């Protein structure tokens, strides 16, 4: 009986620990509407970390551009230094749900007539 | 954080190929998995499960696996943070995770210094001693669960 008692004590804790795994990984924190913005590259592409990133300046703000994971972003042809700082780019993706956060989870980047489609299977 | 990001470690993480972060992340998961798996079995035993198995028979495999898991998780964790350390400034989950780890480690120190722990393979434990170990098991389970939950959520902030 003592055994059962202790298992019941920890069961809710274990269930709680499993919750984050149910949270949506990736697109859940972003708006469902398609979003597009034109800006200039403030900080070039970096493939380091869980996702590749870059920063652009548009509408008087610096936007965090979250790209695909490094390997996937590289396969789309988007590597460090391909797009020069100061270049004009079009970013297509989904804006962060929080309007105070200038972050775009990005599906494709267009620069100088070239399109880097990091999520070709998405609209 | 700026210092950590600018360190040789941070630089190495950022410039050693697109698979590095993922592989170090895998190492972190293996470490955390070993730590928590071992700790879970030990804590449940201290809370009263599997009483027919002597405590010393449980501590022998679980303690070294948990310790090794912690070292692997800590070493790989420093690498992961160093990659883009400044991005984590203001991340509330980090401020939950590290105090939770500190509580977990403090609990290890208190537990391993207790008389009940030291005599576990010498004689049967008295009821108060068993309750003391059960309390340590509960603190351990809560602190590591909190650390893992907060750790998993860092990337969602």
Q: Outline the low-pLDDT stretches of chain B.
A: none
Q: Strand-residue fraction of chain B?
A: under 5%
Q: Assembly type of the shown chains?
A: heterodimer
Structural class of chain A: alpha+beta
What is the CATH-assigned architecture of the domain at 35-117 in chain A?
Beta Barrel
Mean pLDDT rating of chain B: 95
By CATH reckoning, the class of the domain at 35-117 in chain A would read: Mainly Beta
Question: Residue-averaged pLDDT of chain A, rounded?
Answer: 85
SSE sequence of chain B, one letter per element: HHHHHHH
How are the strands of the largest sheet of chain A arranged? Answer: 1-2-3-5-4
Number of helices of chain A: 2
- The radius of gyration computed from the alpha-carbon positions of chain B, rounded to a whole number of angstroms, is 18 Å
CATH topology of the domain at 35-117 in chain A: OB fold (Dihydrolipoamide Acetyltransferase, E2P)
Distance between the termini of chain B: 17 Å
Helix/sheet category of chain B:
mainly alpha
Largest sheet features of chain A: 5 strands, mixed, barrel
- The number of helices of chain B is 7
Helical content band of chain A: 10-25%
Instruction: Count the beta strands of chain B.
Output: 0
> Could you give the order of the helices and strands of chain A?
HEEEHEEE
Describe the model.
The complex is a heterodimer of chains A (123) and B (157). With 123 residues, chain A is α+β, with helices and mostly antiparallel strands. Chain A has a domain at 35-117: Beta Barrel (OB fold (Dihydrolipoamide Acetyltransferase, E2P)), CATH 2.40.50. Chain A has two helices and six strands. In chain A, strands 1-2-3-5-4 form a five-stranded mixed beta barrel. Chain A starts with a helix and ends in a 6-residue tail after the last strand. Mean pLDDT of chain A is 85; it is low at 20-24. Chain B has one domain. Chain B contains seven helices and no strands. Chain B has helices at 2-6, 8-15, 20-46, 55-83, 92-113, 115-118, 127-153. The longest helix of chain B is centred in the middle third of the chain and has 29 residues, at 55-83. Chain B is elongated. The A-B interface holds A 2-3, 5-7, 9-10, 13-14, 16-17, 19-21, 23, 25, 29, 46-50, 69-71, 73-74 and B 13-15, 18-19, 21-22, 25, 43-44, 47-51, 83-84, 87, 134, 138, 141-142, 145, 148-149, 152-153, 155-156.
């Amino acid at each position: 009986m003592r055994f059962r008692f202790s298992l019941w004590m920890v069961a809710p804790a274990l269930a709680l620990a499993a919750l984050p795994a149910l949270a949506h990984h990736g697109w859940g924190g972003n708006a469902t509407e398609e979003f597009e913005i034109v800006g200039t590259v403030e900080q070039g592409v970096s493939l380091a970390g869980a996702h590749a990133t870059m920063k652009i300046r548009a509408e008087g703000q610096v936007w965090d551009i979250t790209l695909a994971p490094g390997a996937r972003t590289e396969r789309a042809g988007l590597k460090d230094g391909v797009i020069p700082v100061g270049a004009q780019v079009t970013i297509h993706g989904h804006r962060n749900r929080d309007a105070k956060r200038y972050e775009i989870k990005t599906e494709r980047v267009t620069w100088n007539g070239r399109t880097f489609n990091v999520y070709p299977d998405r609209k | 954080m700026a210092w950590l990001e600018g360190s040789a470690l941070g630089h190495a993480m950022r410039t050693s190929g697109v698979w590095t972060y993922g592989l170090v992340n895998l190492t972190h998961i293996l470490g955390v998995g070993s730590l928590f798996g071992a700790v879970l079995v030990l804590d449940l035993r201290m809370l009263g499960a599997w009483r027919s198995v002597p405590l010393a028979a449980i501590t022998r495999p679980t303690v070294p696996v948990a310790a090794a898991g912690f070292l692997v998780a800590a070493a790989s964790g420093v690498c992961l943070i160093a990659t883009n350390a400044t991005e984590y400034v203001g991340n509330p989950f980090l401020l939950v995770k590290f105090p939770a780890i500190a509580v977990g480690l403090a609990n290890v120190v208190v537990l391993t210094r207790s008389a009940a722990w030291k005599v576990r393979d010498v004689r049967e434990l008295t009821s108060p001693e068993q309750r003391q170990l059960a309390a340590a098991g509960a603190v351990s389970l809560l602190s590591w669960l909190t650390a893992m939950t907060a750790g998993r959520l860092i990337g969602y902030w």
